[in-house]
């Protein structure tokens, strides 16, 4: 299984954290067994297992627009009643017409993807989730955009040209709400092309949070797996401080009514007092340990089940 050094070869962990992480995008040429974490045959097997997927986890896009789910999914009879599942034949037909396949939340679908997710979570103390993208025929699924998380894209098969732009959103949280001129806003914000890179099997692209980019598949089939990594940001402190502050009577007390005589002055003094206590809490070594433990809690340590070994242990 790949280690972090394998994933980041030939740059390596130390240089990556010093020069690139959260600073600038990075293309790593094919090295080691990065392309072996997944395959076209693996994708065929996953698409064929229709019961794995929902309308949230299997989507198709063509020419920057989503394919209607009714053209992919069908209502089928199951033991629990009628359910909606993708029809592999419909998926295949849409793919033949030029639509891209997107499989979301796939980090637990194979041992290799699970192992990479484990390595990334351990290294970056952030939830890691894998999406699989398969395109063909020089078609572009998504317009220029940025992501609100760290991106590690492993190229598996074929070729895909990534365009990375100078524009970068400062520490985005979520995406802007949909509006008629949203893509126009993105196109203005992305700026000039920083570089173009043809991705080939075994290549890896690191894209820091907020960096604008887009990608175009080559003439044949193109397959890559993107791991999104979500470390804890400062907004998480609000929940952690709330949990820690509930033990303090002053935080549990009602705030002064600003509409009563002298109320605004009393409220201002109360807010100042509460702010001082929050500052003291933030500087407390015990709270530091609490925050560090919450960060480490994002490492989920996915278990590889071995029922045969468990059976032998029980028999012994």
Automatic annotation (TrEMBL):
Pfam families, per the entry = JmjC_2 (PF08007)
Top-level taxon: Bacteria
* Alphabetically ordered keywords of this record: Iron, Metal-binding
Q: Does the keyword Metal-binding apply?
A: yes
Q: Name the InterPro entries for this protein.
A: JmjC_dom (IPR003347), NO66-like (IPR039994)
- Pinpoint the JmjC domain residues: 99-246
> Keyword Nucleus, does the record have it?
no
Q: Give cofactor(s), names only.
A: Fe(2+)
Listed name of the protein:
JmjC domain-containing protein
